[in-house]
Amino acid sequence: MSPSASTQDLAVHLTALPDREVAALLVARPDLASPSSSSFLALATRAGIQGSVEQALAGLDAPTLAVAEAVVALSRLDESGEAEGIGSTEAAQDGRAGGAVGTGGEPADDGPVGDPADNPDNADLAGLIAARLPLETEQVTEALDRLSRLALVIEGRPVAALEAAFGPHPFGLGPWAAEPLSAEQLPPTLEELSEDVASGAGEPIVPTASVEMLQALTWGPPAGTLRSGGKVPGAAPLIERRWLERSSDARGRTRFILPRQVALALRGGRLTRETLTAPEAGDLETVGGDVVASESAFHAEETVRLVGALLEEWGREGGTIRRTGGVSVRALTRTADALDLEPDAAARIIEITAGAGLLGLDDDGTTWVPSTLAAGWLADSLPQRWAPLALAWTGSARTAWLTGTRDDDGAL
């Protein structure tokens, strides 16, 4: 069984639906309704497009999104091409993700664990997920039903674009281990390992340095890159126990990855530490429509002003491009200081300006400078200047707010 539902799987699913459920899908996902599709295969193709899936996700609440991410996090293939059980809810509650039990709590044969049940029905899948999220089984069941009605989860499997929407590390989890691990090979919880080291009673399961490394990786990001000449003394005991995998990145640097089964065991079977309950209505601030309109107008005018200031600053000295792409740290810092903004806010203004076509490369192709459109934009009225900026922001898939954070390789 594929870990994700293919377009053909989705087409078969849609074909089997009663007319009223197909109509309900088109109402819930209006981007699929117009233009009309010539066949269920064409409809399935459109329903599986990344942009359409992201639009469907935008209307979901936090618990339903968490369940969708859980479906992705617990999907995989083993070497035989079959997805196997990740273990029962009892196993997760005992602090071992993927204990030696099958779905439904029945004893299972000894063997690889850490994978979801093969084509589980919603009851089994709901119990599996509820044991790993701070949600009741009934809530998970309702969320799975909704995801199924939205054609995002088919027979317990996510569509491929749903996997892509949550990225390579759902809930901060790394990839599954290259070779399956038995229940006996999985570690105790991170809390138990920490207590074992702190107790000082006898030889610890793994050294303190190894526990510190697990503390850094368990809740994500699940990978770290060793800089040239660097040493990680805590890695060797973990690699020996197969609790850590070593590889190389494209630049030849050593990369350490915490397998998904291991992370789940260290977490005590939990996918998240966050609360997924809705806030009390009485605790929410109510803002009048006039206040919203006033604040919106202010921020629109402020964005126009900042873009103008950026064009002026980069007209004097442009934004140097890094060899790996993007604006250099020095140029970003200088620009943030000139605009009196934090680096992430300055990055957002740069992205909006570039998206509106107001930035271009200099003759050498090494520096961002105002484009030929910039002079005309500066001469336009305020509404005319705001319109292309709003359009650029609306259609952008860039993530300027991640400026200054580290990726999974530990690089800025």
What's the gist of this structure?
The chain has 412 residues and is mostly helical. It is built from 18 helices and eight strands. It folds into three domains: 162 residues, no CATH class; 83 residues, Orthogonal Bundle (Arc Repressor Mutant, subunit A); 117 residues, Arc Repressor Mutant, subunit A.
Explain how this protein is built.
The protein has 412 residues and is mainly alpha-helical. The protein folds into 3 domains: 7-168, no CATH class; 184-266, Arc Repressor Mutant, subunit A, CATH 1.10.10; 286-402, Orthogonal Bundle (Arc Repressor Mutant, subunit A). The protein is built from 18 helices and 8 strands. The chain has helices at 7-16, 19-28, 40-47, 50-58, 62-73, 89-93, 122-130, 137-149, 160-165, 190-199, 208-217, 235-240, 260-266, 289-316, 329-339, 343-355, 374-379, 382-395, and strands spanning 153-154, 157-158, 223-226, 245-248, 254-257, 319-320, 359-361, 367-370. Strands 3-5-4 form a 3-stranded antiparallel β-sheet. Strands 6-8-7 form a 3-stranded antiparallel β-sheet. It is globular and about 75 Å long. Residues 77-120 have low confidence and may be disordered.
Number of helical runs? 18
Helix content: 40-55%
Tell me how many strands there are: 8
Q: Name the strands of the widest sheet in spatial order.
A: 3-5-4
In this structure, how is the largest beta sheet organized? 3 strands, antiparallel
Order of helices and strands: HHHHHHHHEEHHHEHEEHHEHHEEHH
Helix/strand-derived class? mainly alpha
Give me the Rg, rounded: 25 Å
What percent of residues are in strands? 5-15%
Distance between the termini: 38 Å
What's the domain count? 3
Chain-averaged pLDDT: 84
The parts where pLDDT drops under 50 for at least 5 residues are: 77-120
> Can you tell me the overall shape?
globular
Organism: Actinomyces johnsonii F0542
Protein name: Helicase XPB/Ssl2 N-terminal domain-containing protein
